[in-house]
Amino acid sequence: MTTTEVRATGVRLTGLGLGAAPAGNLYQAVTDEEAHATFEAAWDAGIRYFDTAPHYGLGLSERRLGAYLRTRPRDELVVSTKVGRLLVPTPETADRRDPDMFDVPATARRVWDFSRDGVLRSLESSLERTGLDRIDVVYLHDPDDHWEQAAHEALPALAELRDQGVIGAIGAGMNQSAMLARFVRETDVDVVMCAGRFTLLEQPALTDLLPAAVERGVAVVAAAVYNSGILARDEPPESATYDYGPASADLLDRARRIAAVCAEHGVTLPQAALAYVRTHPAVVSAVVGLATPEQARQTEERASAHVPAGLWRALADAGLLAEAAVPRAWPSGGRA
């Protein structure tokens, strides 16, 4: 699998990355053995970039991912985690279920903290949970309501660690593109993770984040490329989800119309969705949440499928893709 270096950091990301939120029991529990098998299948598929966070299952994802990655050659892989949410033990609620989408006991509560001390404590805890000697990429996690502290305390702390060689690359990961663009333009980030805002279904990142990233030479990792489910099947079902909730009738209709045009060009909706995000010159990797070994193998097959460049033009002609969202309108024509 091809890799791309993040700026001049020495960190190289594979074109596909594994999102490890499912290993934190996102929505439903999986066993340690099932998580291990998924990581193994992803490795066999050529994936060498693995993304996690303390938020995912109150540390469970980091523990499981670290246990697997410690069995692999350290210099052959890249792991990213996130800072901004500290996990504070709450043994008094251990008999309850975590209220935040993860099927784990509520043994801790998440506390927002983008202070210098909070960043250092969070990273130290992540190293302990993973058991790894270092973290390659560290993102600020969802700093939507914390710009001042994130930009002026958290990022400088991460920059010092990067400059000391403790971590490789720094950035931010969010479900919006506007603030990510601000980070790119106003701070010294190397890479940003944009979840759900640059997909085949919607492209707000094209007006702010992606042009800024090209201009500043900042790498972009595209996450939630299926918009949390609606683009993940050949034919979106009535139960399809969008941004972690039920998809509206309008979105469902649009996704189905996109799927029909894809079928006319001999590709499936998920194949096109995965290919589309990787056509932009700023995007260096697409991270996909993988819950089973079959999903890992399926993702490799989807990524290997030939998607004709004419598909994007056909979608534009059908009113399903704006002219500015057609890859050939981008700098260098993208990688279509």
Question: Can you summarize this structure?
Answer:
The chain has ten helices and 14 strands.
Spell out the blueprint of helices and strands.
Blueprint: E1 3-5, E2 12-14, E3 16-19, H1 32-44, E4 49-51, H2 60-69, E5 78-83, E6 85-89, E7 108-112, H3 116-130, E8 137-141, H4 147-163, E9 169-174, H5 178-186, E10 191-195, H6 209-216, E11 219-223, E12 241-242, E13 245-246, H7 249-264, H8 269-277, E14 283-289, H9 293-304, H10 310-317
Parallel strand pairs: 3-4, 3-14, 4-5, 5-8, 8-9, 9-10, 10-11, 11-14
Antiparallel strand pairs: 1-2, 6-7, 12-13
Helix pairs in contact: 1-2, 1-9, 3-4, 5-6
What does this structure look like?
This protein has 336 residues and is α/β, with parallel strands linked by helices. 35% of the residues lie in helices and 18% in strands. The protein contains ten helices and 14 strands. It has helices spanning 32-44, 60-69, 116-130, 147-163, 178-186, 209-216, 249-264, 269-277, 293-304, 310-317; strands spanning 3-5, 12-14, 16-19, 49-51, 78-83, 85-89, 108-112, 137-141, 169-174, 191-195, 219-223, 241-242, 245-246, 283-289. The strands form four sheets. The chain has an eight-stranded parallel beta barrel with strand order 3-4-5-8-9-10-11-14, surrounded by five helices. Helix 4 (147-163) links the parallel strand 8 and strand 9. Helix 1 (32-44) crosses helix 2 (60-69) and helix 3 (116-130) packs across helix 4 (147-163). The protein is globular.
The largest pleated sheet is described as: 8 strands, parallel, barrel
Average of the residue pLDDT scores: 97
- Amino-to-carboxy terminus distance: 17 Å
From the spread of the alpha carbons, the general shape counts as globular
Which strand order do you get reading across the main beta sheet? 3-4-5-8-9-10-11-14
Work out the radius of gyration: 19 Å
Order of helices and strands: EEEHEHEEEHEHEHEHEEEHHEHH
SS element count, helices:
10
Give the structural class: alpha/beta
Low-confidence stretches: none
**What is the subunit arrangement here?**
single chain
Strands, total number: 14
Helix content: 25-40%
Beta-strand fraction estimate: 15-25%
